[in-house]
Amino acid sequence: MSVSASPRPAAPKRRQFALARDRGDNRAGILAAATAEFARHGLAGARVDRIAAAAGTNKRMLYYYFGNKEALFSAVLEAAYADIRAAETGLSLQDVAPIEGIRRLIAFTWDYFIAHPEFLMLLNTENLYGAQHLKGRAQVRTLNSPLIATLRTILRRGRADGTFRADPDALQLYISIAALAYFYLSNNHTLSAIFARDLARPAARRARLAHMTTSSSATFATARIDLGQTPAPARVDDPATPPYHRWPNSNQPVNRHRRESIRVARAGAGFPLTPTSGEVMQARSLRSLAVGLLFAVAAVPASAQWKPTKPITIIVPWAAGGSTDQVTRVAAAEIEKALNQKVVIVNQPGASGSIGTKNVVEAPKDGYTWAAGAAKDLGTYAVLGMLDTRIQDWALFLSVANVSTLSVNPATPYKTPTELIDAMKAKPGAISVATAGVNSSGHSAIEAISRAANVKYKHVTYDGGNPAVVATVAGETESTTQLTVEQAEMIRGKKLRPLAVIGDKPVELDGYGVIEPITKWMPGFKEPANYFGIFIPKGVPPEVIATVEKIWANEIAKSAALKSYATSRGAQFAPIAGADAMKAVMPAVQVNAWQAFDGGKAKVSPDTLGIPRP
Asked: What are the strands of the beta sheet with 479-480, ordered from one edge?
């Protein structure tokens, strides 16, 4: 089960088009309805009466605005071009460093295609007709010019500042960017059949993005880019970046639907691709990547002070808005200032954090790809059989220590932990508890309560702490045991009722007051501190670790921003690195690992991995 990080009520499609008509926007409503019809049935199979009915109008009005079905299809394509170009101008590509501008365009294209697969069908239809509906549209050709001009400017700037070692053709570069996403998505069915793997699954798409992210970054920064054949680096997802990847669902009001969904066709309509051309393009990309990685290895400085020459990627293996995402963004801003280099946050949730972490493990050990999360999770992936890595394989840079809180939806009758536990005893396995998964802090907390009180509960998992909290607020679940930092705003807003901190010390939350510890009701209950931070895999150049250790000692330890975050969110400011960090996290790792083993969820005994029973 999953919950969107930013849920939005869905309106029936007929209501969408009625909204447009109510605003006197018949033409926009017809265009939106026609977009859906042409995407679903193609030009030949589309029916004018269905378009008119969906738009809440009649065929007479359709012919009045567009003349005939062919002209309407041409107008749909032109609107797609206009809209996606308008969206691309909002990326502010010329306002950032050259490499960042390319990253933004790549991320935009990938996310847009995934969010609106119906427009890939539109493009395929037009290619079948030899682009005859676009050839006579002078406006479409005019719309192309600004983007290509912008790309040329970015490439010139990149060559001037040393980011790019060649000046590829801007048009070829844009085609390559679109092709990397277009070929995978438009040929998804055939590729899945050939390789006997469902490439449309969310996990498969995340893996594809991770491949483009972790395998390709070096190419842009160091390689001699040949004809613009360049794989896509990380999706940019930080507060300073326009939220261009957060596309609405297709059930939103028509004008928003038309403005934001129809424009995806723009990304690919101008360059028809066949599987053969896509395969050739990918082969050339791999050759460029190989050259790029060689240059990247040669470019790493040998001095004790590491000075990164390109953006650093931190993969947060949980959904945006959760505790890991929150604290990582605060720490990343401090690191950016210290290194004078961009730090890009990439959210890759799934499999209780193991997917994103695996992508860091498999990334080149050049020091430019880091992980983030809870140290206890990192220490138990191998126990759960999720990922072959141990906590000793990482250099730890801790920021805060978090505690979980047992909270319930205010509509429930529970006022104390005792009342909730009594309900669990009376109805074993019926009381629902939302967490971020079997390896999350929330699951560890409810498992500790379950064993201490000898109760059973209904476990409902989500792709991150924030979605789990939102689910409880929405009433999908009765309770949650996620981290206090993830619940803070909802507790202040009285959207959640906190029953107890899952620990032996109270928490004072700004804007709310004191949340009592669960030991007030369950004496003797113990739950070790859960440390969060940034993790760099061992095997990177030693100067990377040495430089970040200096930043932690000189900058992070004095960070007013991190300290303010901790005190305002009910967390403990705990900047620790090196051997001290490893010592601090081991109690939580031990408890988490052996809880999984005793609960029958472990695939490997912790003692075989060097994790003694606490």
From this structure: 458-461, 432-435, 479-480, 405-408, 497-501
Say how far apart CA 313 and CA 391 lie, in whole Å: 20
272, burial (CB in 10 Å: exposed 0-12, middle 13-18, buried 19+): middle
> Which DSSP state fits 217?
H
Residue 493's contacts (CB-CB under 8 Å, 6 or more residues apart) are none
| Pairing label, strands 458-461, 432-435 | parallel
From 374, 75, 345, select the one nearest 234 (Cα to Cα): 345
Rounded to whole angstroms, the Cα distance separating 525 from 504 reads 7
Pair of tokens at residue 391 = 């906590």
What is the Cα–Cα distance from 192 to 180, expressed in whole angstroms? 16
Query: Could you tell me which residue, 402 or 537, shows the higher pLDDT?
Result: 537
pLDDT in tens, 552-600: 999 999 999 998 888 787 788 889 999 899 999 999 899 889 988 988 8
Write down the pTM of the prediction.
Answer: 0.46
Distance, CA of 179 to CA of 278 (rounded, Å) = 7
Q: How far apart are CA 220 and CA 299, in angstroms?
A: 13
Structure tokens, 214: 């972790």
Token pair in block for residue 454? 């000898």
In angstroms, the CA 75 to CA 139 distance is 11
H and E: helices and strands count for the chain: 24, 13
Helix (H/G/I), strand (E/B), else coil: 288: helix
What's the CA gap between 515 and 513, in Å, rounded? 7
Alpha helices by DSSP H, listed for 427-529, are: 441-453, 465-474, 484-492
Question: Residues 412, 417, 422, 423: what is their CA dihedral angle, to the nearest 10 degrees?
Answer: 20
